Amino acid sequence: MGVFESRSFKQSNLSKTIKRHPSVFGVPFVLLMVAASFGLSTVTQTRYDMHDQKVKQVTKEQELRLDANRKKFDIKEEYFRLSAAADEDWEPKRIQRPKGLPEWGVPPTEPPSKQ
C-alpha cells in the first residue's frame, strides 16, 4: 500500500488572525456574559417586586378581619355532623304486634287461615 502524500492546508486570513490573537472571540463572549448577567438581574428584581406587591395587597375582608375565625366548609364533615344530630333525638317506641304474632316475634306454628 502506498503512502499518502501530505498536502499543506491553506489557511485563511480568519484562521491566521485567530491563531495570532485568540482573544478576538473570547473578549466579546465574556462581555456578552457580563452584560447578560446585569440585564437578567434587573428583570429578576422586577419579577420579585411585582410578586411582593401582589402579596401585600389587602382585600376588604382582610381589612375587616372577617375571615380570621372562618372555618373552611367541608361537605363530608357537615353531613356527619347533621346525621349525628338526627340520631340523638329519637327514642325507641314499641308498637302493638299484629294479631296472631306472639310477644317475642316467634312466627305461629300454623299459617293463618283465609276467611
Q: How does this model look, in words?
A:
With 115 residues, the protein is mostly helical. It contains four helices and no strands. The longest helix has 34 residues. The radius of gyration is 46 Å and the shape is elongated. The chain starts with 12 loop residues before the first helix and ends in a 27-residue tail after the last helix. The mean pLDDT is 80.
Strand and helix map with partners:
Blueprint: H1 13-20, H2 23-56, H3 60-64, H4 75-88
Transmembrane segments: 21-40
Region (Disordered): 91-115
Protein name: Cytochrome c oxidase assembly protein COX16, mitochondrial
In brief, what are we looking at here?
It is built from 4 helices and no strands. With 115 residues, the protein is mostly helical.
Name the descriptors.
115 residues
Average per-residue pLDDT, rounded, comes to: 80
Structural shape: elongated
SSE pattern, N- to C-terminal: HHHH
The count of DSSP E runs of length 2 or more, i.e. the number of strands, is 0
Fraction of helical residues: 40-55%
N- to C-terminal separation? 126 Å
What low-confidence regions span 5 or more consecutive residues with pLDDT below 50?
Answer: none
Helical run tally: 4
Main β-sheet description: none
Percent strand: under 5%
Radius of gyration: 46 Å
Structural class: mainly alpha
